Prior knowledge:
By secondary structure, the protein is an alpha+beta fold.
Amino acid sequence: MAPFLFLLVAEGFAALVRQAKNGGLYEGYKIGKRGVEVSDLQFVDDTILVCNPTIQNL
C-alpha cells in the first residue's frame, strides 16, 4: 500500500510543478543545443528540483 501512496503523491507533485511552469511561476534549467527544459527528476523515492538560480524560482 505504501508504494501506491507514494506514487499518488509523486504524481500530484509533478502536476503542481507542471502547473507552476505553465503559469510562469517556475522555470526549469535548459540543457543542450535544443534547449530541453528539465524541472524535476524523480527516481524511486527521491525528487530533485532543477531550476535556474533566480529569486523567482526560490
